[in-house]
Each structure stands twice: as structure tokens, then as C-alpha cells.
Amino acid sequence: MIKDRLYQLDWFVPALVMVLGAIGVTMIFSSTGGIWEDGAQQHLIRLMLGFVLMIGIALTDIRIWMGMAYPVYLGALALLIGVEFFGVSVNGSQRWLDLGVTRVQPSEIMKLAVVMALARFYHDLPDWRVSKPAGIIGAIIVIAMPVGLVMRQPDLGTSILIIAPGLLLLFLSGVRWRIINTGLLAAAVALPLFFTFGLKAYQKERVLTFLDPERDPTGASYHIIQSKIALGSGGVNGKGFMKGTQAQLDYVPENSTDFIFTVIGEEFGLMGGLGLVLLYAILLTLCLYRAVQCKQVFSRLLIMGVSATFALYIIINLAMVMGVAPVVGVPLPLVSYGGTVMLAVMAGFGLILSAHLYRDQELPRGTGLLL
Amino acid sequence: MSRNDSNDQVFVRRTVLLGMAGGTVFCGLAARMYYLQVVQAEDYRTLSENNRFNFRTVVPPRGRILDRHGVQLAGNRQDFRVVLIPERIDDLDATLARISRHIPISKDTAARIAKDISRKRKFTPVLIADHLSWETFSAINLALPDLPGVLPLSGETRDYPKDGTFSHIVGYVGTPSQSDISKDSDPLLRQPTFQIGKTGVEQSADARLRGKAGRLKVEVNALGRVVREWPEAKDEARSGETVYLTLDADLQAFTAEQFGEDSGGAALMDVQTGELRTLLSMPLYDANKFVSGITQADLDKLYTDPKKPEYNKVLSGTYPPASTFKMIVAMAGLEAGVINPAEQIKCTGHMELGNRRFHCWKRRGHGPMDMHNSIKQSCDIYFYEVAQRIGMEKIRSMGERMGLATVHPLGIAGQSRGILPDDAWKRKRLGDGWRTGDTLNASIGQGFVLATPLQLCVMTARMANGQKAIKPHLVIDDALPEFENMDINIGHLNLIRDAMYAVCEVPGGTGYRPDGMGIPKAKMAGKTGTGQVRGISSAERASGVIKNRDLPWKYRDHSLFVGYAPYQAPRFAASCIVEHGESGAGRAATIVRAMLGHALKSDGFDQAAAENLLVDL
Fold first, then answer.
1. Cβ–Cβ gap A229/B19 under 8 Å
2. Chain B residues within an 8 Å CB radius of A248
3. Is the pLDDT score of B68 beyond 60?
4. What whole-number distance in Å separates Cα of residue B229 and Cα of residue A85?
């Protein structure tokens, strides 16, 4: 049975995921000055654990995951509230929860949980109610509750990564264009207000720095300038593996985590950078195709939600590194050093694989909260 | 069913739409990548190089200061110090405790180290202790395995001869002050352990001694830590030049020995070139203490010593020239034509001026005195008379021509001008007009007249030379200074010189010694002086002037002597003042005689040479 399932598994996706993870191990090795123990080794171990987790989730019946959607969501909400009271502050924002054995970032789990909960919500929602107030408000509540908690931490990047895929799922579930347009208009009005009153000083500083990088070349915009120097000096072919001066001499801060792409761009140039982007694009296109293949609302929204989150990670991170978006602290998935993100992404791909593997499974609609 | 289908279509349509939107965003990112890495690549490459490379200042070794024969007066010596690298230290207290087994570390030092660590980058060395002995340094080296993060270093520090014979002239180096740094843009001054000349030749020749900073191209990381050096891009540092002084270390040390415990100053110079062979201030002090940061206790000791060791007496100390000034009065008198050298003036031991009585040092008087004898026996009354005839102005002007009341710049800070007083000076300084009595006092080098030992030496050199207004110089340069003609009547001068010869070499002269300079047949000329430092009241004169021996040290007379040799063909002129050394015929004359003898001997002047000269006598 499991043997059959393993055989039926869409192996392209895990293969691409592992290739990307391996690129991450290599680049972390370079960015830590060639010291295996300073991150690369840990990243490889997490990659292996993540792989096991991904395959495990993939082989589990999609119905179980559908049943888990709301419990996971509520659990993640509880963890976020936990962060509020018992969180550990790292770099001025309270994002970590110390579980004794390990520290986790509940906000990373939340990204998946919101996607699962929304997919489940639309799965149970009769199609005709999608554009009705009950449907819209319900979906917005599912999105708004965790966002409210995350914004308190404060974490602008995660907030965007929860809101945007959520709204994309609204869009995909068939909400009428008229309502979407109205919403966009309202957002256009609300955004400036949010910038003025909703952001912390340092977050505003980041946005302003992004708009004018010369404002403060050693302070807030140092990240962006150094990262552009790293990329630009890499040229077409790059300086060679472990030969990037910006990376090796620590000019780019956080270059094994959020700014890992600068190491790729500097040491492997345009070719390396484009190669990586191409790998991501293939993986995402594959996921898009799998979503269209699915007939079940839960499955295809789940695949789209996870893919959209993944794509947004990539887009925001690259835009940030290349100096076209503010520095918001979003890692490059699978490549950047970081445990929770890696596991969350792996779990996400596990769900995609499971949705695809059990695509012919008829999922009952409107069964309520638990299965 | 149809609604289901339509929703299905909506999903597919919108998914494709999203895919396209995503694809567009990815293409946009790729375009941005192309822009950065191809279009702007060159600019960013330059920025990356600028980031990466830095230039470090390479400190050149400071030039040495040598005497005329190459004896080292200031050099550099290995200095042993111990530093720690904060980032390699696990437990500072434990490390310091282990180090303190070898080097005592006070609470203050420990606090200073902790402060340094907190202020600097974690890889910047922090000084634990410097100026360590070789024994301590080797002990620390042996203990290194137990002292991770502790680094023994050897560097260079300034070194002066321990005896301190050149401390006043060579001076010493020290850490640049804030004002030094703001006045000088040399990057060397901004180096942490760099020292510049603070006093003496170290200060005056600092530009030559300092050398030029080198530059070393280094690759640095974002924190400024040097990762690699690039020797091919090195800009060599230029070592400081060696500065040769005209001084003679052997003669200087010999002279200091003659002084013994006494304080004062002495100078000896070449009467043809103006090169100073000796420039000594006594007592001495050890300039090395200032280099390593003198302790408050040492400083207090130095400044409370009544003999003022730190005071540069030979250049800055001003003393009444006393009877050594009489040659000036005599020359002025001859030039003015108011006195015939053969004219005899009777000395009764005192003379009246208005209601004041002026005394001769010889209470009973010298009897009739001509010019020759008045110098030989240093009769005061004779010069009172001459001075009265010519007036102060002519004396003053002659004094200036002979190099008094003039700063002879040697580049050393604090050289005194001395005083040749006149009416204007007295009015300005004391608010009182000039009186004839002042002229009489000045005529015997007392009263307001003040001169430095160097000025007296220059005066003597000019009299010995006879033609050129010799100026002293200290640093051997390529070009000798040009000397102006003095325009002194040589006939007049010879009368004076003959009298100075008699002072030293003819029985009855105040400075006569049967064995002269200790070179048989070599002759010298000179003049004694006894500088009174206290007023003698008429009551004391009536009851008998108290003998110097019975006075406290600080009230005793200064002992002065100026002289030159050989008399027949002058080579060297010398002056000496021994503070409170009593009569000039005693201490100062003995010292000058020994100095001249020693200088001549070390210059190869011996009995045979003296005999050659005597043919002409």
C-alpha cells in the first residue's frame, strides 16, 4: 500500500526541493567562511529531517489533513498568544517561543495554518455564498486574527505573508471582480493611514530607507547598499565559489540567512542567480499544474495557498536583496539558514504532495468543524 | 452542476492569471538582476574593491641623534610589552590573576584594562603592561600556554644614555598632545603608541627625526579586521634621518664630572665655526623617565630640588656676568676714545658717587691701575671710572655686538635673551629713570645685567676670533652659517686679550694657575667673575663682609669664568657658571681650564703643537 503510494508520489517536487536545499547548504558553507559546523551542517540535517517530514505528510491521507485544518489553525493561534506572554525577544522583536527542547517561531506555522483553514473554509462553503457577506467576512476573520497577533510582535514580513496568500485564496475561490476591485480601492486608501499609524518606528525607517537608500549609508540602508554591491560586483559569471569578497569579509550582514542570495549573486554572478530563480519557477509552475489537476476545492486551494506563500517568500526576499523592496526580514525558502522556515516549507510541500497523491479522493463538503 | 462547472472554470482561469502574474514578477526580478550585474557591474565592482581594501600606516623608526663622533645621544631600544586580545579571553579576571604572578597588576590597572576592552573592537589588542624587563618578558613567554589571548610583543621605544648628560639639550619624546595633533596632519601622530619630540633637539629636529609614514595595502573585513596584506602595493616608510650634533659626548661627560654635585651651566665652542662642543646644564636628570611616563613622585622630586635639575641653565638661566663683563666696558671705552690704556686710575677700594659709596672687591684697593692690570686683577674702581666717562649706551651697544642680550637660536625652546639695560628698559621695567649708579653697577656686570652661559661663551668666542661675529650652532648641517664682520679695532682687542692672558698665565692674575690647562706650553686667556646674589648692607661692610663659607648655599656668590685657548691661535672658547660656587677664580676657572685642556687634547693639540705656536710669541 505505502509502496504503491511511494510509487505514485510526484517525485519531481521533492527532487527540486532537495536540489534547492542542497544549494542552500553550499551557499551557507561559503557564507560562513567555509566552516562546516557554522551552519551548513545544521542546514543539511534540517534538510534531511524536513525531507522525512515532507514524505511523511505526503503519504498521509488528505482527509486527515483536511480534518486537521482547524485544529492546526487554533493551535497556531494559541502558540501566537503564547508568544505574546512567554515569547523570547531576538533582535528587538518577540517572535520566538521557547519550548524547552527547541525554539520555534509560531508565526511560521501560522502561515501554513491560515492556508489550511481558508482552504477548509471554502471547501465547506457553498459556492453561491462565496461572494456573499458571510463568506467574505468569514474568510477575513480567519486571516485577520493571526495577523493582529503577528503585528504585535511586530513582524511586517510575516503579516504580508499571511495576508497576501489569504487574499489570493479569496480571489481563487471565485469572489466577484466587483468586490475585489472595491477591496483594492479601500486598500489604496487605507495603506497610507496604516503606514502612518500602524508601523513601528524601525519599520517606517526601513520603508523610508528603501525609498531613498542614501538617507543613511551606515545605518538602516547599509544592508541594501552592501547587498547591491555584492550582487553588482558579481557580474555575469561571479567571483567564484568562496571568492566573494563582500560575503567572505562580512560586509553583507545576515548573509547566511535573509541575505544568502547576495552570496549566490556575488560568487556565481547573473548565471547563478538566474539559475536559482529558474529552479524556483519550475517548481512553482509544477505546483500550479498540480492545483489545476485537482478537482477538490480543499486540495487545489491548499496547493495554491502553499505555492503562493512559497512564491511570495521568494519574491519579497529577492526584491529586498536587490534593493527594490524594503528590508522586511523574509528568508529565501530552502536556501536561507533557519530551522522553522525550513520545516514549515517542507510541511507545505508535503501537503501539496498529499493533495496531489490523493487527488482522486472524494472529499465530503460541509461536514463541519472536525471531519 | 453548471454553477460547479463555472466555479471550476473560474478557478482554472484565475490560477492561470496568477501564474502569469507570478511569471511577470519573476521576469521583473531577472531584469533587475541583469541591471545590477551587467549594466552596473563595473560601478559595483569598484565599490566592492573600495570596501575591501584599506591602507594602514606603517610607523618608521625614529632617527637617532649622535654626537660629532657618532656616539649615540638618543636611539631606539627594544621595548617589551604584553597585550591581550579581548575576543580570545574567556575569563578576564582569571587571566589577569594568572598574569599577576609575573607582573603586578594594581586595581587601577585592572580597571583601565576593563575600560579599554569595553571601548575597543574585540580583536584590538589592549595593553596590559609595557617597559617590562627581559626577565619578566621571558617569564610571561614561558607561561603563555596557560594564558590564551595574551600576546607578548616587542616594539621600539626611545632610549637616552642613562647618565643624562644630554637631557637638557637632546630633550625627550612624549605622546602628542591634542594641540600637537590638531596642528599637524601627519598620520603618524594618530598612531596609538607614536611619540614626538617634546623638548630640546628632539623637538627642534622632529621633522627630520620622525621620517615619513609608510602605507600598507591591506584587505579588511567589515569590522576593520585585517584579513590579508598586499606587500606588492606597499608604500615603504622612510626612516627618520640621523641627526648629528656638533657636541662631543666625551667632553660633555668630562665637563659634567668636573661639576660634581654642583649646579650651573657650561658651554664650549669652536671660535672659527661656532660649533658647540659642550652645552651642559647641571645637575642632570634622566630623560628616559619622561619617555615611559614619569611617576608623580619622580616629578615632585625633580621640581622640589633646590638645584632645579630640570632647568636648562646653560640656555635659559640668566646670571649677572660679574667681572667677565669688564672686557665689554674696556672695549667700549677704547672705541669711544675716552680712555688711554696706559692711563692710571687709582683704586682706593671705594669711590663716592653723590652720597653713595661704591666698593671694589678688594677692600684696601689696588692702588694705581692701568687697563691691563685692571683686567688682570679685576679692579672694580677702574671700570666705575671708565663707565662713568662713556655712559651706559656705549656699553650696551658693545655688549650686543659681542653677542649679549641676543637670543642665539639653537631651535631649543626657552632660550633666554638676557638683559643689557638702559634708560628705556629701566623705565619700562621699574618705572624709574636711569642713574649713574646703575651704570657703575652694570660696569662690573652686576645690577641689571644678565647673561646666559651660552651668551658668555659666544662673547668670549667673538673676542678670541677678533673678526667675525661668531654664532653658535648645534646641529651639523650641510652649510655653515655666514658670520658678519664685527668691525672691532684689532689693536684694542689685542690689549684686552693680552690682559686676559695675564689673568690666566701670569702670576698675580686672578685666574692664574702655574700648570695652566695641563698641556705644557699651551697657553690660555680668560676672565674670572664672582656674581653677587645678595645685597651687602653698609652695616655689614662696617662689621666685615660675611665669608661665603659662613653663608647658606643659596646666598653664596656665583662662580663665573670665561676663557679661550690656545692663546696664540684661538680654537675654543668656553664659559662656565657654578651657581653659588663662590669666587670665579675657584670652581668655574678650574672647570673651564679643564674643559679647554680636554677639548684641545681630544682635538690632537699637544705639547709639540703648542711649541710650534710659541715660536710666534
1. no
2. 221
3. yes
4. 51
pLDDT at A92 over 60: no
- Can you read off the three cell numbers belonging to residue A295? 478537482
B417 dihedral zone (left: phi>0; alpha: psi -120 to 50; beta): alpha
Domains for chain B: give ranges and CATH numbers. Answer: 57-244 (3.90.1310.10), 249-284+310-476+483-614 (3.40.710.10)
DSSP per-residue string spanning A156-169: HHHHHHHHHHHHHH
The set of residues, in sequence order, having a beta carbon less than 8 Å from that of A208 and lying 6+ positions away, is A215
What pLDDT is stored for residue A26 in this prediction? 94
B223 inside 8 A of chain A by CB:
yes
Q: Which residues of B touch A245 (CB under 8 A)?
A: 48, 51-52, 219
- Widest distance between CA atoms in chain B: 155
Cβ distance A232 to B44 less than 8 Å, yes or no, reads yes
Q: What's the pLDDT tens digit per position in B276-288?
A: 999 999 888 888 8
- State the cell numbers at B101: 604572578
| Interchain pair B45, A311: CB under 8 A | no
Residue B261: predicted pLDDT: 86
CA distances from A183 to A25, B55, B59, B84 (A): 42, 58, 69, 63
The separation between CA A86 and the C-alpha centre of its own chain, rounded to angstroms, equals 24
Return the amino acid letter for B422. D
Measured in degrees and rounded to the nearest 5, phi and psi for residue B90 equal: -85, -50
- Does residue A15 register a pLDDT over 90? yes
In this complex, is the C-beta atom of A135 within 8 Å of any C-beta atom belonging to chain B?
A: no
B39 Cα to chain A: minimum distance (Å): 9
Measured CA to CA, the distance from residue B138 to residue B150 in angstroms comes to 13
On the question of pLDDT at B8 being above 70, the answer is yes
State whether A249 and B220 contact (CB < 8 Å).
Answer: yes
Tell me whether A98 touches chain B (CB under 8 Å).
no
pLDDT tens, position by position, B124-143: 677 788 778 888 888 888 88
Indicate the pairing of strand B276-282 with strand B264-270.
antiparallel
What digits encode the pLDDT tens for the residues B566-591?
Answer: 888 899 999 999 988 777 677 888 99
Q: Residues with Cβ < 8 Å from B92, sequence gap 6 or more? A: B86, B113, B114, B117
- The interface residues of chain B toward chain A in range 46-105, judged by CB-CB distance below 8 A, are 47-48, 51-52
Quickly state the pLDDT bin for B269 (edges 50, 70, 90).
very high
Strands B350-353 and B65-66: unpaired
